[in-house]
Amino acid sequence: xxxxxxxxxxxxxxxxxxxxxxxxxxxxxxxxxxxxxxxxxxxxxxxxxxxxxxxxxxxxxxxxxxxxxxxxxxxxxxxxxxxxxxxxxxxxxxxxxxxxxxxxxxxxxxxxxxxxxxxxxxxxxxxxxxxxxxxxxxxx
Amino acid sequence: xxxxxxxxxxxxxxxxxxxxxxxxxxxxxxxxxxxxxxxxxxxxxxxxxxxxxxxxxxxxxxxxxxxxxxxxxxxxxxxxxxxxxxxxxxxxxxxxxxxxxxxxxxxxxxxxxxxxxxxxxxxxxxxxxxxxxxxxxxxx
Amino acid sequence: xxxxxxxxxxxxxxxxxxxxxxxxxxxxxxxxxxxxxxxxxxxxxxxxxxxxxxxxxxxxxxxxxxxxxxxxxxxxxxxxxxxxxxxxxxxxxxxxxxxxxxxxxxxxxxxxxxxxxxxxxxxxxxxxxxxxxxxxxxxx
Amino acid sequence: xxxxxxxxxxxxxxxxxxxxxxxxxxxxxxxxxxxxxxxxxxxxxxxxxxxxxxxxxxxxxxxxxxxxxxxxxxxxxxxxxxxxxxxxxxxxxxxxxxxxxxxxxxxxxxxxxxxxxxxxxxxxxxxxxxxxxxxxxxxx
Lengths: 140, 140, 140, 140
Hints:
Four copies of one chain form a homotetramer. The first copy, chain A, has helices spanning 6-16, 19-24, 55-71; strands at residues 26-32, 35-41, 78-89, 97-107, 111-119, 126-138. By secondary structure, chain A is of the alpha+beta class. In chain A, strands 1-2-4-5-6-3 form a six-stranded antiparallel sheet. The model of chain A has no long low-confidence stretch (mean pLDDT 96). Chain B binds chain C through residues 86, 88, 90-91, 105-106, 113, 115, 126, 129-131, 133, and chain C through 86, 88, 90-91, 105-106, 113, 115, 126, 129-131, 133. Strand 3 of chain C pairs antiparallel with strand 3 of chain D, so a sheet runs across the interface.
């Protein structure tokens, strides 16, 4: 796990400004160029009608891991925005902790393609797969 | 707005059991066969690093509107699960209230295709578009 | 059906240069700003193992209708490229003619969101739905 | 490359019945449980307006690789149908041969999640990435 250094600090600073990530208890686990891991512990406040972790939580975490993996490939004066993504919710989110690993497929001048795999706490059961497009934008 | 009746009650009962929807302040606005509208007011706890409503909130709301529009087409002893969806985040979520309108495209025996349009509070600016697949499952 | 005029000619000129569209027998049916309709007749050469029109044909047609609807919103010195799309193949393609209607959802400075509905020859049965992202690029 | 055996024959027999695959010159390169590779040589008849291989060809090939990788996990009296997919067209298809490698992510009782990576002839440049859902259906 890489949890320090210049590239980590950049992502961590942005991460901390996201109130919604605080609300769901998301944590930054690992940052390297082209790859970011985030996690989220099970809480009763994050469940759907059957008591499982809500698909919206799984999706938010996957999106964040794709977005920040993309941001690691961009110049310092740039910001990342999600253009679109698609997610397959492959297994019920029965786990004490979701782990989303985002990775860049291709970093272009304007767009970045990225994917994320969300697993249970063991890292072995795939709960969801995302394929996403991010856009590089100036910091406002 | 249709906010009562047997079909409304079915959706409302399920909606109320979703802790995550309570957490983000989602509300059920309208239920008819094949169409469900849900909304969510802007709160500081739901924002990303630029102070806009988080894409994860927009997506969760769209997913819920697709899922419940699908559920209105299913027999009473059935439950709905999201198989997958794709969302285009078309405009920044600058609004005091998100409104997601989910509609069934085709209700099959096993799968239901649905789409959702998320707008700002005026109902005129499209913030996101979702295309989704839901599966019919027995209530456990 | 609009099948003449400056905007029609622009799309028709590009359409004619696509050998693959000739191979599958695609035809340009209608062009207006933000909306393009293309069609394709059933031929034995376009079928899958069960004798139905191949999903690849349905998808190609939908992609073309999205791309050209996007191109109608761009300056004359620009070209359109598909970034990504998602398609739901909702019903078996049992028809003598596929009709794909592409429409722009939002035309931005860099990206255009578009969607397409593919129907049978009657225009009533939805065979597929696409949600797509196009990018504006200089003509090379 | 695995190009013989019972599992290869099953896929090959179905592959041969697809007229559309003959039309675009698709070839079956490799079959193992959960993984199928297909390819397609560049021909002028498969190009778009800039002379590149058409996105519809890239997509058809990716879809076929996902579908057949899913079929390898299903009982012999079952057939595979594509429910939906999403594809990112990451680089222009500048190559003499497209290679699509489809792999199963999860084989369920009703649905199979699969993904495909399409590369150029060197196998190194990623041209496209697909994430797909297949359904198991009885042979009619």
